[in-house]
Structure formats: structure tokens, C-alpha cells
Automatic annotation (TrEMBL):
This is Unannotated protein. Pfam families: Oxidored_FMN, Pyr_redox_2. In the N-terminal section; belongs to the NADH:flavin oxidoreductase/NADH oxidase family. It comes from freshwater metagenome. Keywords: Flavoprotein, FMN, Iron, Iron-sulfur, Metal-binding, Oxidoreductase. Residues 421-652 form the FAD/NAD(P)-binding domain. The keyword Secreted does not apply.
Length: 682
């Protein structure tokens, strides 16, 4: 995102707006994301309430609570799914809406029945309610790139003692029950203080399963023609209106299209569905997209776009523009937009409201920072996809770049009761984040860095991934603004620390990089990542035309992409079957798919046996292979460097540790360490 604090006013994005009778202070809506932050009985947890309150305090106009179950535990995907299907859930829901309202935001519940994704039913031996039994998905080879632990987590519903995978084709009485569950839940949400209800009619859940020809193969009055397939949605909307009246804000989230399906939803048919929904009384349309589960990149082609594409045929904003020209109700859209892009979409009349998900996970205060003209202070999303990916593996929503996301209650770091002088040793991501958090809490922080510039490995990583370069710039700016004192080119000894006499010491000296014990690892054309620093920042002849990258983590794939963009032929050698395991699954699949589309040779299950002058020898399964390479980049092999911390402790000096110096945990681990240290000193 460019610097916009001076040049942009965001007059459209920050303007008030209406959805029916609901008045919103701006056009920024927090995306409805299944967060799995509820308690295991579906009640609102302390962390969940604090999570939403943080976004309300941060200035968003409307918060959407995603995937609220209308029939919990039936028709639900997880035991930690938010429920509103019974009055026992009212106390937590009332507390949630009250906490949001006290900050001037509005809150709506996105209500759903999960249909063929009701994994909690499968885990408990109940059939999943569907329009018709589904066809089995056809996973592509990318979808096999998951770790054993991830497989176990993803298969939890099928491995319980009570598990049974079965389907119930909905009968007339089933559908009458579904309608009543949606109506009853809507009324309860109104009583709980929610300002509106969004029906989830997309993303492959029950209502959407009736809408799409790919799932709805019925031949009765609920299938066939688009009007029949839309009947369940329309019946629910009419019944809600009959119960709650015409004034209560009510709208739908619906797919514009289904990608990668020859028999999926088309935009023209979905326009007809939307027309029927408007006739049934909705106040707005929240336009989304979905993709076949046969394609592993589905999430990043649909509801979690990997990139913002302006004006492209098939982009969400283009669909929104067309829809807005045909309807008289507000249109809500999204699509990995930076604030300046969102402002442009609104200014050009393509939509009325912008939904932000990952942006508000990374920085809950984004709206307030725009209002204050401080766009450069917005913490950037670095798109590691752990937020979405966590839900795939039964974790809760968290953020690599913001340790407090999903932990707002547990990691509530406030102003320090007794501010202290703190020395942070190391200016990489862990040191900078620790300095930022501690200085923000009111401690007097000094940071010593052995190198001549701040950033540590982020300097190199940022050269290959501009998102990380932007994140590093943000870290440095925030620490500077908080008054952190920096000293560069300072090697640190135990005596230095003792003489400085700080109240607290944090060691964040990072990892060391070595070469593997391989024949040829010491050849002149073999480099570790730090040794390539100059080339990473400025292309030159240090790297030849044919590159072999040893290590298929996120760093290895990013380096491979950079080499490809600079005209090299690239192979990536990975000893396991999983590339970039540190990324959330959707981001991992996208990165691998893009690498393959760019012609990068991904060599999995490969053990390097030696490096020659122009080749790398590997053993793949039971076969030997020679990979041509003028340059070899070792993108793995980092190890913790606890030496200074150990020496300080041996000398009787208490030292906190953060980041890779004590365990390889990358940005996410560094940020968690920083938050934990700040909490311990609060």
C-alpha cells in the first residue's frame, strides 16, 4: 500500500451508509469469518467477545459474526462454532453485542446451516442434511501436500468412535424444520441485540447446495429450474420477514459464480436468484464467490482471493458493478483490497460497502488510522493464510503478523504499571516486535543490533517477498515512533550488558545459517540465503542461469519465484512431500500452484546426495536424478543461536528470549514471544 496519509481522504470509504434501516458510520464491514473462537458448547468465549470488541473499538462500521449455527449442534461444522439456536446462548450473545455497541459499531449475525460440511454431525454418527447425496470430490495432486498432523486434524470428524459418514436427502418436513430454525435464530439474534442478520447462501453450505445445479439434482419442486432451486432461500426470507417485520435489516451473502465447475452456478442465474431474494424483502446483497472442492486452490480463487484484480472479467468487483447497475439495494463486495483500492471501488460506483477480513485481523484499528490520516501506521497483512488455514486444521483464527488476534483476552497487554528500562539485543523481527510492544506499553527500550541495518533475515526475505519488506518497514517505523533508541554495528558481550545495568534484558539474536554436510557444499557457486544479500537486492551475475534451491519452505519458494522473475530456470528440492508447511493450507496450495504454472521444477521427497560444478545429485524415492544448476541456494538449515542468552544466564543475568535464538518459529513465533514478554512485564 502506498503512503496515503497526506494524499487520500478516503471520503467514500469513511462516509456513513445505510443497509435498510441500519445506519453505519462508514463503509467498512468486518468479514464474516468462521473463527472457531467460541467455547466448545457454542457459547461466546471471553476471547471471542474481546476479538470483536477490538474491531469495534478500531472503528469498523459493521461487524459480521460468521457462520452462526441455526441448529447447533446439528448442521454445524465444529463444536466451537458460534450458536444462536437456543435461549441458552443469549447471555453470551447479549454480552457480545453490548461490547460492540459501546464503541459505536454495529453488529450482525451471519446465520447458516452447514449442509454437507456439517462435520459435527458426522463425528457424532448423524447424517448430514443435503438436497441430494453429493459426488465425491476429486482432489488434485496439490491437495496431497499436507502434513501428517494436518491430515489428522482435517480427518477428525471421520475418526471418532461415533463417526459415520452418511447423508440425508432433505424431505418436506426436513425443509420445514430448516425454515423454522432460520426464523427462530433470526428472532433470537434480534433479541440478543444484533442489528441485522445475513443469511449465508454461498460457499457450499445448505442454502447454496440447493442453489447450485452441481449439488441440487432433485427432480421435485425444490430442484431443476432456478426458481425451484431458490425456493428454500426465498421461503426462509419470507418467513423471517413475516416474523420480524419489514424494518429489521436482513440480507444475503451469495456466490456470483462457482469457479472450476462446468455445472456450477452462473452469474446470470445468480442474478435471477438475487432478484427473487429482493422480492422476498432483503435490504442488501453481499456478493462472494466459490470454487470447486476438486481444485485445491479453490479458497484463493473464491472467498479468500489471492490478489486484487481491477476490472478483470470475473473479478468480484466487476460482478458487483454489474449487479449494482441492476438492483436498487446496496451491494457489498470484497477482494483483498488495500484501503486506496477500496476507496476507488466505491468512488467508481462499483459497490456500496467494502468487506475486509484479513486486513482487520492484522490491524483492528485500520479504520481509525484512516480517519486520523495515519495510513502508514496500519499493520500490513502479509498473507501467510494462517488465519483461514487454521480453521482447516481445527485451530482458531489467529494472525501471523498480530499475535493478539484471537487472543485479545488472553494477551491483553496494557500500559505497564511499573515502566522499566529494557535492553533488546537483536534487530530482527523478534527484536523489533519486542521493542515495539514494550515501548508501546510505556517501557524505555534500547535496541542493540550487531549489523549495520535493522531487519535481520527479514531484509533478505523482503527482497524475495515485497509483503515482508513492507512489514519490516512498518516494524521499524512503529518502534521509532514509540521512542526506541537504536544502536547499530554493536557486538554485545556479557560485560557490555552487565555494565549497561538495564532493568530487563531481551535476547533476540536470531538463528545461524550453516551449510549441510554434503559433498560440494563448499563450492564457490553454493550460497546460503544471507550470502546472497547483495544479489537479492540488486540482480547481478552472482546467480547463474540455472538455479537449484535446496529447501522447499516458504523462503525457498519465494526465492525460486524471484529467480524465475529474473529469468532463471529454477528447481526446488524438498526432502518431504510438503512445500511451505509454515503457510496456512490455502496459501500453500496457491504458492505451489503458481510455482508450477511458472514452470518451476518442484522436486519433492528428494534427498540431496552431492553438489557438483554444474549439477545437484538427488535421490527421489528409489531413483537417482541429476539436476542442472549453475547456482545452488541453500534455503534451509537455520538453527537457533542461544549462545548469548546462555552466557548471560550463566553470569547470573536474567534474560528473556524471543524469536529464532531459542526456537525456529519465524514471524509468528517471534510475535508470540514478544507479547508474552510484554505481558510478563505489565
Amino acid at each position: 500500500m502506498p503512503s496515503m496519509g497526506v494524499t487520500m481522504s478516503f471520503e467514500h470509504l469513511l462516509a456513513p451508509g445505510h443497509i435498510g434501516t441500519l445506519k453505519l458510520r462508514n463503509r467498512i464491514i468486518m468479514a464474516p469469518m468462521g473463527d472457531c473462537l467460541s467455547n466448545v458448547d457454542g457459547t461466546v468465549s471471553d476471547n471471542q467477545a474481546a476479538y470483536f470488541e477490538a474491531r469495534a473499538r478500531g472503528g469498523a462500521g459493521l461487524l459480521l459474526v460468521g457462520s452462526v449455527s441455526v441448529s447447533y449442534p446439528y448442521g454445524s461444522f465444529d463444536e466451537r462454532q458460534t450458536a444462536a439456536s437456543d435461549d441458552i446462548y443469549l447471555p453470551g450473545l447479549i454480552d457480545l453485542t453490548t461490547r460492540v455497541h459501546r464503541h459505536g459499531a454495529r453488529i450482525a449475525a451471519q446465520i447458516t446451516h452447514n449442509g454437507q460440511m456439517s462435520l459435527l454431525d458426522t463425528a457424532n454418527g448423524r447424517p448430514m442434511l443435503v438436497p441430494a447425496p453429493p459426488k465425491a470430490p476429486k482432489p488434485d495432486h496439490i491437495s496431497t501436500m499436507v502434513t501428517e498432523g494436518e491430515v489428522a486434524a482435517m480427518m477428525w470428524a471421520y475418526t471418532q468412535p461415533t463417526s459415520q459418514l452418511s447423508y440425508q436427502a432433505a424431505t418436506e418436513s426436513d425443509l420445514a424444520w430448516v425454515v423454522e430454525r432460520f426464523v427462530d435464530t433470526s428472532e433470537r439474534c434480534q433479541r440478543a441485540g444484533f442489528d441485522g442478520v445475513e443469511l449465508h447462501a454461498g460457499h457450499g453450505y445448505l442454502i447454496d447446495e440447493f442453489l447450485t445445479p452441481s449439488m441440487n439434482t432433485r427432480t421435485d419442486g425444490w430442484g431443476g429450474a432456478v426458481e425451484n432451486r431458490a425456493r428454500l432461500l426465498v421461503d426462509i426470507l419470507r418467513a423471517i420477514r413475516a416474523r420480524l417485520g419489514p424494518e429489521f435489516p436482513l440480507w444475503i451473502r451469495i456466490n456470483a459464480v462457482e469457479h472450476h465447475k462446468t455445472d456450477g452456478e452462473t452469474f446470470e442465474e445468480q442474478l435471477r436468484v438475487i432478484e427473487l431474494a429482493i422480492e422476498a424483502g432483503i435490504d442488501a446483497v453481499h456478493l462472494t464467490a466459490y470454487a470447486s472442492t476438486d481444485v485445491a486452490t479453490g479458497p484463493t480463487d473464491g472467498y479468500a482471493p489471492h490478489r486484487y484484480v481491477k476490472d478483470a472479467v470475473g473479478s468480484l468487483t466487476e460482478y458487483a458493478r454489474i449487479l449494482r447497475s441492476r438492483v436498487a439495494v446496496p451491494v457489498i463486495t470484497f477482494g483483498r483490497m488495500e484501503p486506496d483500492e477500496a476507496e476507488e471501488v466505491l468512488a467508481e460506483g462499483k459497490a456500496d460497502f467494502i468487506v475486509m477480513g484479513r486486513k482487520l485481523l492484522a490491524d483492528p484499528d485500520l479504520p481509525n488510522k484512516l480517519i486520523a490520516g495515519r495510513s502508514d501506521d496500519i499493520r500490513p497483512c502479509i498473507y501467510q493464510y494462517r488465519c483461514i488455514g487454521n480453521i482447516f486444521v481445527r485451530d482458531s483464527v489467529h494472525c501471523v503478523g498480530n499475535a493478539q488476534t484471537g487472543r485479545e483476552h488472553d494477551l491483553a497487554v496494557g500500559p505497564a504499571a511499573s515502566p522499566r528500562s529494557v535492553l533488546v539485543i537483536g534487530g530482527g523481527p523478534a527484536g523489533l516486535e519486542t521493542a515495539r510492544v514494550l515501548s508501546q506499553a510505556g517501557h524505555a527500550v534500547t535496541l542493540w543490533e550487531a549489523g549495520t541495518r535493522l531487519g535481520g533475515m527479514l531484509v533478505h526475505a523482503g527482497a524475495a517477498d515485497p509483503l515482508l519488506e513492507r512489514y519490516l518497514g512498518w516494524l521499524i517505523r512503529q518502534a521509532e515512533q514509540n521512542g526506541v533508541s537504536f544502536t547499530l554495528a554493536k557486538s554485545v558481550t556479557v560485560d557490555d550488558v552487565r555494565a549497561a545495568a538495564f532493568d530487563e534484558v531481551v535476547v533476540a539474536t536470531g538463528a545461524t545459517w550453516g551449510r549441510p554436510p554434503l559433498p560440494g557444499a563448499d563450492l564457490a557457486h553454493v550460497f546460503t540465503v544471507p550470502e546472497l544479500g547483495a544479489w537479492l537486492r540488486d540482480d547481478g551475475d552472482q546467480v547463474g542461469a540455472r538455479v537449484a534451491v535446496i529447501g522447499g519452505g516458504k523462503a525457498g519458494l519465494s526465492l525460486a519465484d524471484l529467480c524465475h522473475k529474473r529469468g532463471r530456470t529454477v528447481s526446488v528440492i524438498e526432502p518431504t512431500h510438503v512445500f511451505a508447511p509454515e503457510l496456512g493450507i490455502p496459501g500453500r496450495f496457491r504458492l505451489v500452484a503458481d510455482a508450477e504454472a511458472n514452470g518451476i521444477d518442484l522436486v519433492a521427497r528428494a534427498t540431496v546426495t552431492g553438489i557438483g560444478e554444474a549439477t545437484v545429485q538427488v535421490r527421489v524415492d528409489e531413483s537417482d536424478r541429476s539436476i542442472a544448476a549453475d547456482t545452488v541456494i541453500i534455503a534451509s538449515g537455520a538453527s537457533p543461536a542461544p549462545g548469548l542468552a546462555d552466557a548471560l544466564r550463566a553470569a547470573g543475568i536474567h534474560a528473556h528470549v524471543a524469536g529464532d535464538c531459542h526456537q525456529l518459529a519465524r514471524i509468528e513465533g517471534a510475535n508470540l514471544d514478544a507479547a508474552a514478554i510484554a505481558l510478563s512485564l505489565s
